[in-house]
Amino acid sequence: MKKLFLGLIATVMFGFAGNAQTKISTDLKSVIDAQMITLVHTANQTYSKGMTSSEWIKQNGPYTPTKDEVLLMQKVFSYLSAGTLDSEILKQDNSVLLTVSKSLISDSGTSQQNRWCFKCILQAIKEIIEVIINHLP
Predict the structure, then answer these.
(1) Radius of gyration for the chain, computed over Cα atoms and rounded to the nearest angstrom
(2) Model pTM?
(3) DSSP code of 38?
(4) How confident is the model at residue 113 (pLDDT cuts 50, 70, 90)?
């Protein structure tokens, strides 16, 4: 009885502890994936081979990034550092971009010398996603 009770508690805990992924339609996924490719190509201007993730995020990310923004920046960096092809990016789960675009975007800490502004690019992508979402059936 004791084992059954502990097993029941463990099952309930695992059931609530999982991360729920954002359920998105095929049309919306293709929009998000296309915008992720745009973000990766734009971010490629600031990536140098041999850079670490923390160096790149510190150079390009917001002053105080949210948890989702950090996840997005890490995903973009992983695509950059691996030289991921666009066709492979399309196959990945890029829903973190949708999550970030639905929230308030943190102020970017980039200097005037840097041509890549995280907040500027994300704001443009956010607007594109909103327009397309409003026109999807």
Answers:
(1) 18
(2) 0.70
(3) H
(4) very low
